[in-house]
Amino acid sequence: MSDEIKWKKESDMPLMAMSMGRMTVNKTGSWRNLRPVIEKEKCIKCGICWKFCPDVSIRLDEEDYPVVDLEFCKGCGICAVECPKDAITMIKEE
Amino acid sequence: MQKVIMGNHALSWGALLSRAEVIAAYPITPQTEVVELLSNMCADGDLDAQFIKVESEHSAMAASMGASAAGARTFTATSAQGLALMHEVLHWATGARLPIVMGNINRAMAPPWTIWTEQTDSISERDTGWLQIYTSSIQEILDSVIQAYKVAEQVYLPVMVVLDSFVLSHTNENCDIPDQSKVDAYLPKFENAYKLDVNKPAAYGGLTGPDWYYELRYKIQKDTERSLDLFVETGKEFGEMFGREYGLVETYKLDDADTVLVSSASIASTARPVIDAMREEGHKVGLIRVRVFRPFPSDLMRKLLEGRKKVLVVDRNISFGMSGAFYEETKAALYNVKNSPPMWGYIAGLGGRDVPTNVVRDMIEQTMKEDHPSGDIIWIGVKK
Amino acid sequence: MLEIRFHGRGGQGTVVASKALAFAVAREGRFVQTFPEYGVERRGAPVVAFTRIDDVPIYIRSKIYEPDHLVVLEPTLIGAIDVTEGLKPGGWIIINSDKKAAEFGQFAGFKVATFDATSVALKYRLGSSAAPIVNTAILGALSKITGFVGIDAVREAVREIAPVKKDENVKAAEEAYEKAEAEQEQS
Ligand code: SF4
Ligand code: SF4
C-alpha cells in the first residue's frame, strides 16, 4: 500500500474510497511549538503516554522506555498531562 | 419445474437459484415468508448459505454489507418501516459499491399502521443509488432476482427487486422454476475484485475530502447509466436461455397508440385487459409498464412517448407536495423534447386500495375526454 | 376465465381451499391465480379467498367482484353476510352443509349444491372436532359437482399442500368426490 494517493484522474481510482492514502504523509512534527522531554529517572514504564498520544508519535524502546518521534509529535502536551510521575516536561521549541 | 408459488417464495427461490452465500434478514409483514423459506432452505441443506439472524433491519443491511464486502453473494429482504430503518446503510451499500440484492415488498408507510401495498417506501429510497426493478408477476420476481445479481456484480451496485404487498407477495400463481445448471451457466460464481483480503490489506471508506469525493459520485452515476444497457443485455440473454425476455420497460399494443398509459407493477398488469377491451372498441390505446425505475430509462421513454397525443401516468405512491414519482420522472424525461405530449398524473391505490379494471378504464377515459390535465395530481375515487 | 370466490371462517382452511384448487388446476396445465382477502386474520372471523382459472396467462390483479361461482365452507355465514354479492346469474354455489340444496330457497337464479364436508373431515380427524378442516373434502365435492378440475389433479394437489395427514386428506377428497351429487340443481 502506498502512502500517497497515486492517481491523478477518476478513471485511475478504485470504485470506492479504498486506501485513500495514509496519515504518514502528514508530517505533523512541523506543527510543534512545544516539545516533550522525558526524564528516564522518573519514568516507571507504565506506557500511559504511549497509549494517549493522539498522533501515535511515541514508541517504546527495547527497555520499554518511551521515545518521541519528532517527525510526527505535534507538541500537544497530552503525554505530559497524563504521565502519573510527571516524567514529561514540555519545553519551548527554538 | 412448474410450480404454483407465492410472490414471497419467488424471492426465496430466486436467491436459492442464484446460490446466495449469505442471507441476513429481519422478518416483517408482508415479507416474513421470504425469510421463513430461506431459513428452511438453509436448515434443510438445499441452500449452502450462512443465515444470519439479526435484531433489526439496520443490522440486516449492515451484516449484508459486511458479507458482500468479504466477497459473498448476499441476499436480504424487507418492507416499509424496515426499509426506512435501513435508510442510512442503504447509502453506505451504494457508496461502498456492494452488489447486494434485496427484495422489498411495497407496503404503505405508517402511521396509521397498515400492511397493504403502496410504493412510497421504495420510492423514498430512490436517491440512495440502489437500482430498482418493479415486478408485475410471480415469475418475474424469481427471474428478476437472478438478473439483478448479473447486473449488480458487473457495475458493483446494489439492486432492489420490488413487489406489491399481498397483490404479488401473497398471490400464488404458476411459476417455472428454472434448472439450477442453467442458472449457474447464466450467473457464474462471482469474483469480487475489491473484496476484503487479508493478504492485500486496504482501508475502505476512509475520510475522503472534497478533492476526490466528487469523482467517486461521478463514478457511481456513470456505472448506474451503464446498467441501463446491462439490464437490456442481460434481459435478452435471459430470454435466450429461459424463454422469458426482460427489458427496461414492457410495452403493450403501443405501436399506433394515441393515448398511452404509463404505470408499473400490478396496476400495469391489470391495465392489459383494459387495453384489450378498449382496443376492441376501436380506441387507439397502449401501455408502457416501467420495470426498471432506477436508473430511469429516460432515453427510451422519450423514444416511446415523443409525438403521442396524450400520456397518462398512474402512480401508487406520492411525493407529498409534488406528485407521483413515475409521473415526475416521465415528465422530466420529456421536458426538452419538441413533441412532448400533454401528461396526466393520477394517484391510485394508496394503502392497498384495490385498483380494478373499471378504475383503470376511468382514468384512461378521463384523459381521452380532457384537452389538458387539470393539475399536477389527479386523485381517483376519493370519498368526498 | 373462471373466477371463484371462497367464503369461510378463520381456521377452517378457506385460504388453503382456494390454493388447493389452484394447485390442482395448474397440474392440468392451465393458468391460475389465487389470493386471500387480506385483513388481520383471526380464528372465527369471516374469511374470503379468490381463485382465477384461465387457458392463457392472467394479468388482472384486482379482487374478484363478480365471481362466476362460489364455495361456502361455513353455512352459518349465509344470512350473516351477503355471500352472493356480485355473483353472476347461473353460477354455482357449493355449500358445506348437511341440508338439501332445495332448502336454500333464497338462492334462486343460481345453481346450488350441498355436500356435508364437515362429516367427512370429522371422520378422517382433519383439524379438531370443534374446528374440523373441511377444505380437502369440499374440493373433492367441487371436482365432482362442477368438473372444473379432475379428481386426479385434486388428489395430487391435496398431497402437495396438506401439511399433515396427507393420506387422510386425500381420502377425504376422494370420498367427497364419490358421494357428492352433481344433480342438485335448482331453478
Ligand atoms: S506532545 Fe502530543 S504529539 Fe507529542 S508525544 Fe506528547 S502526546 Fe504525542
Ligand atoms: S507515562 Fe510517564 S511514567 Fe509512564 S511511561 Fe510515559 S513517561 Fe514513563
From TrEMBL, chain A:
Top-level lineage group: Bacteria
Keywords: 4Fe-4S, Iron, Iron-sulfur, Metal-binding, Repeat
Pfam families linked to this entry: Fer4_21
GO molecular function: 4 iron, 4 sulfur cluster binding; metal ion binding; oxidoreductase activity, acting on the aldehyde or oxo group of donors, iron-sulfur protein as acceptor
Keyword 4Fe-4S: yes
InterPro entries: 4Fe4S_Fe-S-bd, 4Fe4S_Fe_S_CS, PorD_KorD
Domain 4Fe-4S ferredoxin-type: 34-63, 64-93
Cofactor: [4Fe-4S] cluster
The keyword Metal-binding belongs to this UniProt entry's keyword annotation: yes
Name listed for the protein in its UniProt record: 4Fe-4S dicluster domain-containing protein
Organism: candidate division WOR-3 bacterium
UniProtKB/TrEMBL annotation, chain B:
Ranges where the Pyruvate flavodoxin/ferredoxin oxidoreductase pyrimidine binding domain occurs: 16-226
Protein name: Pyruvate ferredoxin oxidoreductase
Any single GO BP term: response to oxidative stress
Primary gene name: porA
Organism encoding this protein: candidate division WOR-3 bacterium
UniProt GO MF annotations: oxidoreductase activity, acting on the aldehyde or oxo group of donors
Keywords for the protein's UniProt record, in alphabetical order: Oxidoreductase, Pyruvate
Keyword Oxidoreductase: yes
InterPro entries, per database record: PFOR_II, Pyruvate:ferred/Flavod_OxRd, Pyrv_Fd/Flavodoxin_OxRdtase_N, THDP-binding, Transketo_C/PFOR_II
CDD domains registered for this protein in UniProt: TPP_PYR_PFOR_IOR-alpha_like
Pyruvate:ferredoxin oxidoreductase core domain span: 257-356
Keyword NADP: no
TrEMBL record, chain C:
Keyword Heme set for record: no
GO terms, molecular function: oxidoreductase activity, acting on the aldehyde or oxo group of donors, iron-sulfur protein as acceptor
Residue span, Pyruvate/ketoisovalerate oxidoreductase catalytic domain: 10-178
Keyword list, A-Z: Oxidoreductase, Pyruvate
UniProt superkingdom: Bacteria
Gene3D superfamilies in the cross-refs: Pyruvate-ferredoxin oxidoreductase, PFOR, domain III (3.40.920.10)
NCBIfam families reported for this sequence: PorC_KorC
Protein known as: Pyruvate ferredoxin oxidoreductase
Organism: candidate division WOR-3 bacterium
